[in-house]
Inverse folding.
DNA sequence: AAGTGGTCTAGACCACAAA
DNA sequence: TTGTGGTCTAGACCACTTG
């Protein structure tokens, strides 16, 4: 442990000891002060390294209680939620978009339930389809708070997906994966057989008030991938 | 900006300026040195705050190039990957498990493709079913490197899922959501109609060498949720 | 060449929770 | 009460990358 010290080096050494069970799961590891002395660096450097491991769930740290190796570390996977158009273009394909309908309508009970108690009675119901190289890519079935986007905002050319990402920040939301059988209308739009298994992605976002609830229904065979 | 300064305070102030477009998207923000002076704290504190925002994707930082507000911040969602049994018990239900088969077999090409070039020719092929209150919950279709778990490790009582989580750490892996129509055999095991839309979750893990590739196929209606 | 973020250090004080 | 992590500071040097 000589040469230019980095906190990453300290982190990797700690990681090694965890994996080797030199620091057994569930047990306390040495103080920051002791480790700093042993590794020949400042306490702040050890702190940064251990904090990083705690952030990723491998260590648990408590004032006065010391640092322990997490017993059953929870694996976490991070998904990025891109703009659909960018998602398609990243594959070197041509993204297309067509608005199917945009009406003010009473919000169905199940949508209101996930958006919260302060959901407006009526919201904009927007249906659109995204295409890749002219093949159907996904259906967008969205409920949008009209106070966020009034009638002067139209989604003929720019998708609501893209407009929202670029203009609205949100403080909280939910994301949910599910599978569903293609209904006849959906099958016709996506160019697949009725009953085909489709991957769906439900998303809701809100700040003080609800912003939007959207279900994206992907064409058959679509996969959502991420690295661990 | 007085009283006991925290890096969180600095972060929140920066966040406010980003949301207010005081720092317009895509543009450079002041130096760490300037900000530290303006806010009356040390550069390290500003550094910590801005680094945090950069980690969550709202800022982009480059040496010599300064810090800019990310143009189209990528939304990220974090999923935890629990042990299936704990997942079920967390709902207050009773988790059950039954091993269906466990054989050494040649690895199909598509599995070998995702596991990497150094995939063994033969791996253990394990099929099992998880139940909740005696109702089918999900099918586990796993390929497991026999060098990781030899024949002395059996999965009659403890699922491979649980054994792996508790004994194997891994350095990298992939995770993938997909939808599929229930095949007759799957439908029989899950107690649903053939052709029903099922949510599938493919996962691979490896260290130096491949560990496992597993597909979990959930009973109809299952949703995987997370907060944003 | 020079400006900017990345990191380290030594020391200090504080906040929290366990003893 | 006291030990441990959380954070701050002022200063320093380094690494990258842009002009």
């Amino acid at each position: 442990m000589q040469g230019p010290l980095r906190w990453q080096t300290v982190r990797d050494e700690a990681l090694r000891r965890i994996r080797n069970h030199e620091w057994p799961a569930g047990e306390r590891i040495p103080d920051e002060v002791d480790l700093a002395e042993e590794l020949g660096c400042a306490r702040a450097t050890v702190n940064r390294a251990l904090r990083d491991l705690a952030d990723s769930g491998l260590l648990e740290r408590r004032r006065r209680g010391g640092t322990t190796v997490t017993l059953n570390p929870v694996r976490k996977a991070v998904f990025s939620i891109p703009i659909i158009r960018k998602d398609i273009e990243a594959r070197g394909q041509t993204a297309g978009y067509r608005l199917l309908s945009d009406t003010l309508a009473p919000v169905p009970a199940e949508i209101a339930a996930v958006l919260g108690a302060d959901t407006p009675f009526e919201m904009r119901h927007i249906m659109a389809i995204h295409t890749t190289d002219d093949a159907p890519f996904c259906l967008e079935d969205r409920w949008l708070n009209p106070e966020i986007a009034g009638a002067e905002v139209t989604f003929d050319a720019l998708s609501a997906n893209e407009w929202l990402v670029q203009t609205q920040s949100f403080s909280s939301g939910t994301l949910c994966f599910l599978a569903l059988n293609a209904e006849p209308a959906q099958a016709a739009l996506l160019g697949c057989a009725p009953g085909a298994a489709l991957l769906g992605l439900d998303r809701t976002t809100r700040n003080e008030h609800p912003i939007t609830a959207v279900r994206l229904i992907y064409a058959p065979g679509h996969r959502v991938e991420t690295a661990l």
Observations:
- Helices of chain A lie at 7-19, 32-39, 43-55, 84-89, 109-115, 160-167, 184-190.
- Chain A touches chain B through 46 residues (CB under 8 Å).
- The radius of gyration of chain A is 24 Å.
